[in-house]
Every structure is written in structure tokens, then in C-alpha cells.
Design a protein that fits this description.
The complex is a heterodimer. Chain A contains 5 helices and 7 strands, in the order H-E-E-E-H-E-H-E-H-E-E-H. Chain A is an alpha/beta fold. Chain A has one domain: Glutaredoxin, CATH 3.40.30. Chain A is elongated, with a radius of gyration of 21 Å. By secondary structure, chain B is an all-alpha fold. Chain B contains 7 helices and no strands. Classes of the chains: A alpha/beta, B mainly alpha. At the A-B interface, strand 1, strand 2 and helix 4 of A face helix 1, helix 4 and helix 5 of B.
Chain lengths: ~170, ~160
């Protein structure tokens, strides 16, 4: 009886330890997107500055990088120069910024100070961000020319990570 | 070119809508206190994606506030709880559901506690049975004393009595 109890105890502890150690390596903020491989939720939003409405569907035919950000997000400041530089270097890729819960004044000031190379759209109440499953900003979605989401990246992008994810959208 | 720009400028703003993901509303549109109550109830079932382990109803984050506003709007439009949860699940995955679904590995979350409870119950029952039967054996007054240990004990007692 004592041996059985010991074995059961060891098995239970082993399972708990295995599960806990498995979870240790994971980023608790990471959310696996169920949208990978699915059509990107459509949107048509107004761009800051120009007032022009940009429809995602009209961008079909080339890879699109949709970057969700905000002026109240500190890592977005760090990421912005990378996005601007890559947008200038990659004319065949359409970059789109989507900002939620922010004001046009602040966005325009941010872009004037830090440069702008692509349209920044206003998602007033974050509905677009919700449809994309955005957890926190910055978060970037890579859409292939057929309009399907092929990758999602959470946090500030480096050129290397951008190229790595963009390669999936080029296939 | 100018005509295109002009057209673009006047194009209607369009945000992704729940109808595209979960179809037309299947319930009745809610208003007043009932709307508030259901908003709170459903918000307590959705996990805030920014903060860990908090429902959107309890989180002060911007994202959670947006999600809660969306829940409210969908209830106002007549979407059912199942449709609303399914809408959020379609973009955030099962991560967003604070009550995991009974499927795949998640089913273990529901099955394991029941198994553990059943196992514990069985253990208690078997132990209790053993406790019940054990004293009966030793305390039975009319049972013949035929165990070798008792024989030895009796023999020893007799031996001591004889000696005296």
C-alpha cells in the first residue's frame, strides 16, 4: 500500500513539475493568433493628415504590413525608425500604421518629429485592433498579396525580424 | 488621379464587423439595466489580453475598455452571449475565454478535478470499509480462538498458572 501511495505521489508531482517547467519557457503575454492563414479582417480607415480613407482590400496584390501602435506606447518610439527605414527601402511592400485610442494632434506631432513614410490610419475605438486580436502595442501583422495573414509579431520589430516575417508574405 | 483621391477621401470608414465573423444577431437587443448587467456578466468571461489573469470587466487597460465597449454594443444589437464569445475567440483564440471550452487538451481542466474527486471518494470508501471490518474481527466474542498467536499466548498463560 505504501509503495502504491509513493508511486501515485511521484507521478502526480512529476506531472505538475512537467507542466510548470513547460510553462516557464513561454511568454505569458504571447497570444497565438487564430487568424494566421485566414483572410485579414477588412477595414477602410481615415489616414491622419490627409484625411484620405484607405481600404485594405485596395492594397491586394502586394505584401502589406499592418502595424498597430499608439503615441502612448513607449516601445513604439523605439520601433518607429525601423519601420520608416524599411518602408523607404521596400517600395513593393505596403506599410500601414493603425493607431487606436489616440488623438490626431499627438499622432501628427509624433510623425513630424520622427518621420513618416507610409499612411497612419485612425482606429478610433479600437474595433479594428480587436478584430485582429491585438493584445498590446506595438503589434504587427504581415499580409500576403492574396490578403491572408501569414504572420503576427508582438513587440517592437527590428529589421531582421521584419525581414524574417515579411519573407512569409512574399511566398 | 485627382478624381481617385477625391473618391478615396469620401469613401466611408469601415471597421471589421461582428456580422462578418458570427453572422446576424440571434438574440433580442438589450437596453437599460439589463444591458448593463449582461455587459458585466459577459465581460467577466473574457480575459484581458494585456493584463494577465484579469477579466476585461476588471481591467483598467485601454484594450479591455475597448473590448468591454464592443461587448456592450453587440448586446445592444441583439447578439447572444455565445455569438459574442465566439467573435472574440475568432480573433484572440481560446486564450480570451476565461472559462476554457470542453475540447482537446482543455477538456483535462474539466475532467481531472472530477477524476481526482472520484479517486478521493473511492479511497475514503475503501479505507472506511477496512476500518469497519477490522474491529469486528478482533472484537467478536463468540469466535473460536484458533489463531496460532493466540494459541501460543494461551499456552504461555497456562504454563504460568500451572507453575504456581
Amino acid at each position: 500500500m505504501n509503495k502504491t501511495v509513493l508511486i501515485i505521489g511521484v507521478v502526480i508531482v512529476a506531472v505538475i513539475v512537467f507542466v510548470l517547467f513547460g510553462g516557464l519557457g513561454k511568454d505569458p503575454q504571447h497570444i497565438d493568433s487564430p487568424l494566421i492563414g485566414k483572410p485579414a479582417p477588412p477595414f477602410a480607415l481615415k489616414a491622419v493628415g490627409t484625411g484620405q480613407t484607405i481600404d485594405l482590400e485596395s492594397l491586394r496584390g502586394k505584401p502589406v504590413i499592418v502595424n498597430f501602435w499608439a503615441t502612448w506606447c513607449v516601445p513604439c518610439y523605439e520601433e518607429h525608425p525601423t519601420l520608416v527605414a524599411n518602408a523607404r527601402n521596400l517600395p513593393n511592400v505596403q506599410f500601414v500604421g493603425v493607431v487606436f485610442n489616440d488623438t490626431e494632434d499627438k499622432i501628427l506631432r509624433f510623425l513630424a518629429e520622427r518621420g513618416a513614410a507610409y499612411p497612419t490610419l485612425i482606429d478610433a475605438n479600437g474595433k479594428t485592433a480587436i478584430a485582429y486580436g491585438v493584445g498590446g502595442v506595438p503589434e504587427t501583422y504581415f499580409i500576403n498579396p492574396a490578403g491572408k495573414i501569414v504572420a503576427k509579431f508582438e513587440g517592437p520589430l527590428s529589421t531582421e525580424l521584419l525581414e524574417e516575417n515579411l519573407a512569409k508574405a512574399m511566398k | 488621379m485627382i478624381a481617385t483621391l477625391f473618391l478615396l477621401a469620401f469613401m466611408q470608414i469601415k471597421v471589421p464587423d461582428a456580422a462578418q465573423f458570427v453572422g446576424a444577431p440571434q438574440g433580442t437587443p438589450l437596453t437599460g439595466p439589463q444591458l448593463e448587467r449582461r455587459t458585466m456578466e459577459i465581460s467577466s468571461e473574457l480575459r484581458c489580453p494585456v493584463c494577465q489573469g484579469l477579466a476585461i470587466g476588471d481591467s483598467p487597460s485601454i484594450m479591455a475598455a475597448n473590448m468591454k465597449a464592443q461587448v456592450r454594443e453587440l448586446l445592444e444589437r441583439g447578439y447572444t452571449e455565445a455569438q459574442i464569445l465566439s467573435y472574440f475567440e475568432k480573433s484572440y483564440g481560446q486564450f480570451v475565454l476565461l472559462k476554457p471550452k470542453f475540447q482537446g487538451v482543455n477538456a483535462l481542466v474539466w475532467i481531472l478535478p472530477i477524476l481526482a474527486l472520484a479517486g478521493g471518494f473511492l479511497l475514503v470508501v475503501t479505507k472506511a470499509k477496512k476500518l469497519e471490518t477490522a474491529p469486528v474481527k478482533s472484537a467478536a466474542p463468540n469466535e473460536p480462538v484458533d489463531e496460532p498467536t493466540d494459541d501460543l499466548y494461551l499456552a504461555r498463560v497456562r504454563e504460568m498458572v500451572d507453575k504456581q
